[in-house]
Specification:
286 residues, alpha/beta, 9-stranded mixed sheet, 8 helices, 17 strands
Length: 286
């Protein structure tokens, strides 16, 4: 099977959804740069969306405006289509693959455990950038929240898990995090499975995961990391729909400029990207 170029550091680019496509497009600009810019070979996967033609047109416009060549499109309509050797070859030749938002269940049904899913793993292993937004973000982990109530309070059995691609192990990713108040559903899942680290990503915000375990935050929002490894919860005993008791959880709130190690579950670096203008001016005049 043909591949593109030498092996580089495995990189994921996971976006919380609703990223800016019409202004500076800071988040998508970073994705294009990681994929090779003018030399990129991009593949767009609009499968999760209910408006696929519009998604293809929108991302084609923004990627080409940011300097990349027009992306190829891979769009399996069912699980059998994910066996298409032409689609597999496109992924094998890509320097960057981008999965759009939409329905997580569509992706879960059509990608994991198929030749197309295997090609995504090969692409990741050799250093092609695998990017995704919204549903395309959730599919990156081994398990993903495919359904669930929103809100601040964690409640028992209000979320459904489905199989993801498993490109990022040991975590579960949620998206549109702050905008749709998804703290409760992510905490309920992680409290019930405390070996998993929860990652909630705001809109227009992304994590760039390099070498599988360390990520840097980009964009205008924040990333929440939920660690329940030492927490106590009544998840085994609470009735369906009851508010969960969770105590001892550790929460990290990480804006752009933060670098976090998932192996050690700790912040390893931070560079301020959102300075207070008034404070900066006062300091400059002092």
């Amino acid at each position: 099977m043909a591949t593109s170029g030498r092996t580089r550091t495995p990189t994921l680019f996971v976006i919380g959804g609703a990223e800016d496509r019409v202004g500076k497009a800071t988040v998508l600009r970073r994705f294009v740069r990681l994929a090779g810019g003018r030399r990129a070979r991009l593949v767009l996967v609009p499968t999760a969306s209910s408006f696929q033609d519009e998604v293809v047109a929108s991302y084609t416009e923004v990627f080409t405006r940011l300097g990349a060549p027009e992306p190829a499109v891979v769009n399996p309509k069912g699980r059998l289509d994910a066996h298409d050797p032409v689609a597999v070859e496109l992924i094998d030749q890509a320097t960057g693959v981008f999965l759009s938002g939409g329905s997580q269940l569509k992706l879960s049904q059509r990608l994991p455990g198929t030749p197309l899913g295997d090609a995504l793993h090969r692409a990741h292993d050799r250093g092609a950038v695998i990017g995704g937004t919204s549903a395309g973000a959730s599919i990156m982990s081994q398990f993903m929240i495919s359904m669930g109530d929103e809100g601040i309070t964690p409640r028992q059995r209000h979320s459904q898990l489905s199989a993801g691609l498993g490109l990022l192990e040991g975590v579960i990713i949620d998206q549109h995090f702050g905008e749709r108040a998804r703290y409760g559903r992510l905490l309920s899942v992680v409290a019930g499975s405390p070996s998993l680290i929860g990652i909630g990503i705001d809109e227009d915000t992304a994590i760039e995961v390099r070498g599988r375990r360390r990520f840097t935050v980009h964009g205008s929002g924040a990333v929440f990391v939920l660690d329940c490894r030492s927490a106590t919860s009544d998840a085994p005993d609470a009735r369906r729909g009851a508010p969960l008791m969770v105590t001892g959880a550790v929460v990290h709130s990480l804006p752009a400029g933060a670098t976090f190690d998932l192996s050690e579950v700790r912040l390893v670096d931070f560079v301020e990207k959102h300075p207070d203008v008034a404070v900066a001016l006062a300091t400059a005049k002092a």
